[in-house]
Amino acid sequence: MHGANVINEVIxxxxxxxxxxxxxxxxxxxxxxxxxxxxxxxxxxxPSSIRSVAFVDGGNAEIIRAPHLSVHFVRTYAAxxxxxxxxxxxxxxxxxxxxxxxxxxxxxxxxxxIGVDCSIPEIDINxxxxxxxxxxxxxxxxxxxxxxxxxxxxxxxxxDCVVRDxxxxxxxxxxxxxxKQAAVMQIGVSKTTTALTDTGVSAPFFLSQKGxxxxxxxxxxxxxxxxxxxxxxxxxxxxxxxDVKNGTLPETAGILAPYCSDASFVGYPYPLxxxxxxxxxxxxxxxxxxxxxxxxxxxxxxxxxxxxxxHDVLNSLH
Length: 318
Known about the structure:
Blueprint: H1 4-22, E1 27-30, E2 33-36, E3 42-43, E4 52-65, E5 69-82, E6 85-103, E7 106-114, E8 123-124, H2 138-154, E9 161-165, E10 185-190, E11 196-197, H3 203-210, E12 216-218, E13 225-231, E14 240-245, H4 249-256, H5 270-279, H6 283-297, H7 299-305, H8 310-316
Parallel strand pairs: 4-9, 9-10
Antiparallel strand pairs: 1-2, 1-11, 3-12, 4-5, 5-6, 6-7, 7-8, 10-14, 12-13, 13-14
């Protein structure tokens, strides 16, 4: 272990870098958007008249892995709240069998979804938008399936507003879902974000330093679709990115603030914590399903996986 002097040197450098980068930023870079910075865009959180809110999350885990075929188990969970009382909830589970098919001079992924009535179009393996210029992988397709199933489950809920974990803007997955809730207020809450100031500082970090005391929302945009940031509880030190469609950010923050007092994660909507817990596929569940498929598939299971599991074998030897 390194001594205290080395650790102190690292801390001093962190302080120096942070002070140097602080500066006076003019913009936040959020994806391809530039959001201006000005202290006049800090607003108090407004009460909301929204009566019912649906929260959703999903999880998926790979059960069979091969370069040309992948099977994922997918679970989605939604809950409807009126006030802070949960009045309805629903869980759905499905398998996604993702496989390659020749298509002209290339390949496409086809995802057969078994267990729920849902389908997505075939996906070109060279769709650079989906995977940052790299070839699309089965995991990317599985994420699209989960995303579509989350929205499909939300569309089954009777609510004035829908909330999901993650951003709403520039989501390539939206090309593969059939939106039925165009007029319903949609909210995205991002636990993490890569948004930066034009001086190279994390946007939530910078806003937490410059924002007023208490709870607030930062929203320079007042459009049909807006991106901003919020501190949703006066005792929280966390600032989250928030997206809203068909609503305003101050009202959106007012919808979520009553759910953000739980001691387990102050400042984050508890129904999203609950949805994450209910939707996650545990390692134990994944291993159980792998054993079931291994027994039922026989030697085909190992034959499929032998092209992809060498790293796992080596790791097991450590």
